[in-house]
Design a protein that fits this description.
single chain, about 190 residues, Tetracycline Repressor, domain 2, 9 helices
Length: about 190
């Protein structure tokens, strides 16, 4: 297997540095200068390996969403055969289970989505993918429910999860976590077994 090229390695380092800047300063504040400083490389190397600020944002969104998909795949693959939904609810609504950095980046991308072409569409595709995974879990666990019920419950679970994840930044995790888990369980009780 060939080694990654220096350009690939630098690109990865740049995208990671840009992600740290987005998490700290938001999309508008994640400048080429800050990214270069965070990556400990010259701004010209940023432009050479990724491009201008618009190209950097575009590459970052694709990279970040691919990483998020990988993490989601790992989580769903790790679910046990028994009590899958209960385990999933515990994982989704446990303070500290999610990566605070990823939450900050996601929140910054949501804020920027209204101003930047293509971000909203790509975020929606990512959310839809997650929702479909939830629907598939519900279909296995609640086979007597119909597709529309599974979809509605999956959208509700996703909404609860993204809300819980975003609000973790405000603190008060244990009460919010408990209430979010309870809300998720109530939603699941509405589905025929």
């Amino acid at each position: 297997m060939p080694r990654p090229s220096l350009k690939d390695t630098r690109r990865e380092e740049i995208l990671e540095a840009y992600g740290r800047c987005v998490a700290q300063y938001g999309v508008d504040g994640a400048t080429l200068e800050r990214t270069a400083e965070e990556a400990a490389m010259a701004r010209s190397l940023i432009r050479h390996n990724v491009g201008n600020k618009e190209a950097l944002l575009d590459a970052f969104v694709d990279w970040f969403l691919a990483k998020s998909l990988e993490a989601s795949d790992v989580m769903f693959a790790a679910l046990p055969q028994r009590n899958r939904l209960e385990t999933l609810i515990e994982w989704l609504f446990t303070p500290g289970h999610n990566d605070a950095h990823s939450t900050r980046v996601t929140n910054a991308l949501v804020v920027a989505a209204g101003d930047q072409n293509g971000i909203a569409e790509r975020l929606n595709v990512s959310i839809e993918s997650f929702t479909q995974r939830l629907s598939a879990e519900l279909a296995m666990a609640r086979p007597r429910s119909n597709t529309e019920e599974q979809r509605a419950a999956a959208v509700g679970l996703a909404a609860l999860y993204f809300n819980f994840d975003a609000l973790q930044e405000l603190g008060g995790g244990s009460d919010l976590a408990r209430s979010s888990r309870d809300a998720a369980r109530l939603l699941l009780k509405a589905l025929p077994s």
